[in-house]
């Protein structure tokens, strides 16, 4: 595996407030990473530090193999943070030309990247005439200009309407499909779940979890059950060793597994006991439920 | 270096306001220079011809043009503070850094632009003065023409120093209007230092010596006012109006020192700041 970014014991203090506390994780080539955490958990600060706009208090980080300066590394990185920042009096094309000059890449890719985000026909319009969705798409085009090895996106869908959110997500998925490493910071769990393979969970500047999304919690999933004869079912569930917690909500019974069991095996077992299920679904916790479980455990 | 200048030029060139201000700061001194060099007839009452006063004679013309032209530096000063203020208000400074411009490069791109502009302004004033001088001056021997050409150097150093001060204030305060207001505050502060020095040292001369180390005063001292010198040429026998109007190496050294301090502080400020 080729490392793209390595962070070791990074700490950032703003006066008395510790925004990032002893954070360590690394990003490998080819994966789509999510940084997940509620507002104010230190996501943007962490990205700010590795992008050279926020000074770290302690710890260190290095890009790629550690032999390039942050300044040079950033020319191989594409990043957008919080809001799209461009010169309002310049057109989209002029803004991108400026970015090309800063990154030291040729201007030949401007049209291509504008086409990727669907802004080619508006390239001569001034930036200030753009809607927020268009501004955000221009920011993505700008971040792609140098064909980056990693694309960093901080809350890319923040403040957009559903259509805009959908467009941005589609663009991210297309880019990820081409094998570009992506680091996506978000507080929207379904966004991370839909796009990311790996996740770093932060809360109050501390890392709660980092690893694959599907291994976030060791869980065998749960059954959602309905039957005519609730009492018999509850008794049968209590007797089974692989069933842990059981929750009853109205006529819906939720049984959490603490060992592996398939839905068909369970159905067969109930049938043998003379319990007939009118509803049987096996599910895994969504990222949201896992996230809440993870953050609750520490409270 | 070329890359940094190109980057800054694109930012300025496409901004209508700064473009207009740059043109004004170039064209206005010329217009004034040319207007003052032609014979103006006030509706037949009298004719005003400044050339007759002898102010367009070499070598005094170098002194006079650079002194008056330096007042037009305020137009470009507005450009300098707004080119920092806009970067903060548009948050493009943050974006520039993320895109791969280092903080050092950012400050240097502004500084190179200042030097480049000052150089252009100096060259233009130099050429215009030379042409007008050749036309009006009673003396056109090469040794007299190029005597006191050091006023051009002083003019250049003065511009670079003043714009570096503006750059630093822009960096410090992040807002163009505040930065310009701070120039006024600095001016008042220098007078306070002057009066405090009068109180401490007891003499005005000593106080002026102290003040001459302050940023604005040191820039002003590079090119002393030429009015008294014009009067001097009219009344050569009056010794009490004699004064030292020359450009001295130590005056240039003080301003260059301030320039270095301002640029370094701008960089330090940006480096320490979380954006």
Summary tags:
heterodimer, A: 299 residues, Rossmann fold, Alpha-Beta Plaits, 2 domains, 13 strands, B: mainly alpha, 13 helices, 2 strands
Question: Could you provide a short overview of the structure?
Answer:
Chain A has ten helices and 13 strands.
Task: Describe the overall structure.
The complex is a heterodimer of chains A (299) and B (275). With 299 residues, chain A is of the alpha/beta class. Chain A has helices spanning 43-50, 70-73, 92-103, 110-116, 132-144, 162-177, 189-195, 230-239, 263-272, 287-297, and strands spanning 3-14, 17-28, 32-36, 58-63, 77-80, 150-154, 181-186, 198-203, 206-212, 222-227, 243-249, 252-257, 277-283. Chain A is elongated, with a radius of gyration of 24 Å. Chain B has one domain (2-272). Chain B has 13 helices and 2 strands. In chain B, strands 1-2 form a two-stranded antiparallel sheet. The two termini of chain B are 25 Å apart. The model of chain B has no long low-confidence stretch (mean pLDDT 87).
Largest interface: A-B, 30 and 26 residues
CATH class assignment of the largest domain in chain A: Alpha Beta
Radius of gyration of chain A: 24 Å
Mean pLDDT of chain B: 87
Q: How many discrete structural domains of chain A?
A: 2
Helical residue percent band of chain A = 25-40%
**Shape summary of chain B:** globular
Spatial strand order of the main sheet of chain B: 1-2
- For the residues shown, what is the average pLDDT of chain A? 86
Strand content of chain B: under 5%
Measured between the Cα atoms of the first and last residue of chain B, the distance is: 25 Å
Written as H for each helix and E for each strand, in order along the chain, the element string of chain B is HHEEHHHHHHHHHHH
Say how many strands of chain A there are.
13
Regions of chain A with pLDDT < 50 over 5+ consecutive residues? Answer: none
Known CATH architecture of the largest domain in chain A:
3-Layer(aba) Sandwich
Structural class of chain A: alpha/beta
List segments of chain B where confidence is low: pLDDT < 50 over at least 5 consecutive residues: none
- Return Rg of chain B in Å: 21 Å
**Main sheet properties of chain B:** 2 strands, antiparallel
């Amino acid at each position: 595996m080729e490392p793209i970014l390595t962070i070791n014991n990074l700490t950032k203090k703003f006066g008395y407030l510790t925004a990032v506390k002893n954070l360590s994780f690394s990003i490998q080539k080819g994966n789509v990473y999510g940084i997940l955490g509620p507002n104010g958990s230190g996501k943007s600060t962490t990205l700010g530090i590795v992008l050279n706009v926020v000074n770290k208090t302690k710890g260190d980080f290095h890009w790629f193999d550690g032999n390039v300066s942050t300044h040079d590394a950033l020319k191989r990185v594409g990043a957008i943070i919080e809001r799209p920042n461009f010169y309002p009096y310049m057109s989209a094309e002029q803004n991108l030309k400026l970015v090309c000059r800063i990154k030291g890449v040729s201007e030949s890719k401007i049209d291509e990247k504008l086409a990727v985000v669907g802004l080619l026909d508006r390239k001569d319009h001034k930036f200030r005439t753009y809607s927020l969705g268009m501004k955000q798409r221009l920011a993505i085009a700008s971040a792609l200009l140098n064909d980056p090895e990693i694309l960093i996106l901080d809350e890319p869908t923040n403040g957009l309407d559903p259509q805009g959110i959908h467009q941005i997500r589609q663009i991210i998925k297309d880019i990820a499909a081409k094998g570009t490493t992506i680091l996506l910071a978000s507080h929207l769990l379904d966004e991370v779940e839909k796009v990311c393979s790996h996740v770093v969970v932060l809360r109050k500047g501390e890392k709660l979890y980092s690893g694959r999304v599907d291994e976030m919690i060791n869980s065998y999933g749960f059954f959602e059950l309905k039957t005519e004869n609730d009492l018999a079912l509850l008794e049968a569930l209590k007797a089974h060793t692989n069933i842990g917690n059981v929750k009853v909500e109205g006529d819906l019974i939720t049984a959490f597994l603490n060992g592996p069991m398939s839905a068909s095996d369970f159905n067969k077992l109930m049938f043998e006991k003379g319990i007939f299920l009118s509803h049987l679904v096996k599910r895994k916790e969504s990222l949201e439920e896992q996230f809440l479980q993870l953050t609750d455990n520490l409270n | 270096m070329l890359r940094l200048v190109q980057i800054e030029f694109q930012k300025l060139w496409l901004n209508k306001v700064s473009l207009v201000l740059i043109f004004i700061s170039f064209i206005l001194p010329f217009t004034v220079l040319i207007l003052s060099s032609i014979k103006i007839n006030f509706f037949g009452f009298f004719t005003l011809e400044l050339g007759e006063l002898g102010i367009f004679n070499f070598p005094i013309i170098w002194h006079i043009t650079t002194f008056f032209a330096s007042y037009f530096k305020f137009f470009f000063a507005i450009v300098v503070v707004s080119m920092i203020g806009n970067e903060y208000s548009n948050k493009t400074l943050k974006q520039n850094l993320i895109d791969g411009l280092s903080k050092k490069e950012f400050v240097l791109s502004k500084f190179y632009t200042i030097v480049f502009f000052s150089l252009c302004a100096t060259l233009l004033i130099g050429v215009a003065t030379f042409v007008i001088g050749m036309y009006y001056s009673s003396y056109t021997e090469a040794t007299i023409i190029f005597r006191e050409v050091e006023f051009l150097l002083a003019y250049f150093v003065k511009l670079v120093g003043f714009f570096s001060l503006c750059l630093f204030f822009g960096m410090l305060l992040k807002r163009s209007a505040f930065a310009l207001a701070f120039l006024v505050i600095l001016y008042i502060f220098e007078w306070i230092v002057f009066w405090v020095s009068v109180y401490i040292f007891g003499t005005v001369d000593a106080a002026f010596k102290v003040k001459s180390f302050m940023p604005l005063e040191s820039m002003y001292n590079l090119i002393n006012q030429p009015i008294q010198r014009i009067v001097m040429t009219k009344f050569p026998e009056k010794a009490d109006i004699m004064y030292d109007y020359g450009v001295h190496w130590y005056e240039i050294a003080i301003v260059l020192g301030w320039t270095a301090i301002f640029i370094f502080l701008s960089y330090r400020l940006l480096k320490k700041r979380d954006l």
